[in-house]
Amino acid sequence: MNRRLPLAALLLAPCLAPGWTGCGPSGPGPYPLDDVLRLDHLQALGTHNSTHVETYELPAWDYTHLPLGEQLELQGVRQFELDLNWLPAEHRFEVYHLTTVDEGTTCRVFTDCLGAQKDWSDRHPGHHPLFTLLELKAEFDPATIGALLDDVEAQLRSVWPEERLLRPDDVTGGVGELREAVETRGWPTLGELRGRAMYVLLEGGEYRAAYTQGDTTTAGRLMFPNCGGDLGPPICAVHNVNDPETGGATIAAAVAAGHLVRTRADADGEEARAGDVTKRDAAFASGAQFVSTDYPAEREDVDYVVRVPGGTPSRCNPVTAPAGCSPQDIEDPARLAR
């Protein structure tokens, strides 16, 4: 399916469209292509294990991220990954990589992490949607998994008003299948989505089946299920494909179908230590909408960094975006503040 849209159909968004920052002499006005560009037309930077703080000298864990708000403000990060560890006695999720051995974190309580994202979003309503993978680190128990997933949603709702979230029902219109919706009608426009956030349940298998009634429906859910490159199930529109080289064909097929993909530019510090940008460059060329890294900023000890080429901080997707799109049409720093 050819998803490159002509710009001849452009109609200026009204002054009250989502993401506007004022009209006429009082402000820069709305993004001019906000009724043309859709969510799958962008490419943005992400971080892996986004709250990680190095606590053990292991090569794979040799990275420390800035707090989430600073990643958004200073590094242009728009995609995150949060590991959720359930503390039943306290009835809350804590965010860190691995219990005991790698618990260093910039943001321990899940709702605090959500609050950091929302606080930045409140102050920068012109941003394109934030995309966050949630990895549920809890042993699967059929008797409790439903309640646990409901708790994740409840904590999302405790921080974000639902109208500020992008939900599967916003894509389907509450009718039909998610996969069919994105493959026929496409994702909502950026004008409809500015200032909003979307969350993805990273686990597949039994976790995903429990969340989607056996992989049959996303109706009423807050999170998008991760389908890992499988385009078949009716719930599938979002995919995590870690390796852009071995998974290149999988990414290409998903992107061609209009789905969203997150991939990684590096893993376990191997590319950074070798100064090898092959995987990084493959990730950006693949058309994946979100490219994740452990190295979003320069470091003195490695000759390696990941930034979106020509991004402001994000850019037009090199595979899906229509001709005439510019990075400033995706997100323009001058249009972020109120």
Number of helical regions: 11
Would you tell me the overall average pLDDT? 91
* Helix and strand pattern: EHEEHEHHHHEHEEHEHHEEH
Q: How many strand segments?
A: 10
Radius of gyration: 19 Å
Class by helix and strand content?
Answer: alpha/beta
Terminal-residue CA separation: 38 Å
Quote the beta fraction.
Answer: 5-15%
Q: How many strands, which pairing sense, and closed or not: the largest β-sheet?
A: 10 strands, mixed
Low-confidence region ranges: 1-27
**So what's the overall shape?**
globular
Residues in helices, as a percent range: 25-40%
What tags apply to this protein structure?
338 residues, alpha/beta, 10-stranded mixed sheet, 11 helices, disordered N terminus
Reconstruct the topology from this structure.
Layout: E1 42-47, H1 68-74, E2 77-87, E3 92-95, H2 110-123, E4 130-136, H3 145-159, H4 168-172, H5 178-184, H6 190-193, E5 197-201, H7 205-211, E6 224-225, E7 238-240, H8 248-256, E8 260-264, H9 270-274, H10 278-285, E9 290-293, E10 315-316, H11 327-330
Parallel strand pairs: 1-2, 1-9, 2-4, 4-5, 5-6, 7-8, 8-9
Antiparallel strand pairs: 1-10, 2-3
Helix pairs in contact: 1-2, 2-3
Q: Could you explain the architecture of this structure?
A:
The chain is an alpha/beta fold and 338 residues long. Helices cover 25% and strands 14% of the residues. The protein is built from 11 helices and 10 strands. It has helices at residues 68-74, 110-123, 145-159, 168-172, 178-184, 190-193, 205-211, 248-256, 270-274, 278-285, 327-330; strands at 42-47, 77-87, 92-95, 130-136, 197-201, 224-225, 238-240, 260-264, 290-293, 315-316. Strands 1, 2, 3, 4, 5, 6, 7, 8, 9 and 10 form a 10-stranded mixed beta sheet that branches. Strand 5 (197-201), helix 7 and strand 6 form a beta-alpha-beta unit. The longest helix has 15 residues, at 145-159. 47% of the residues are buried. Residues 1-27 have low confidence and may be disordered.
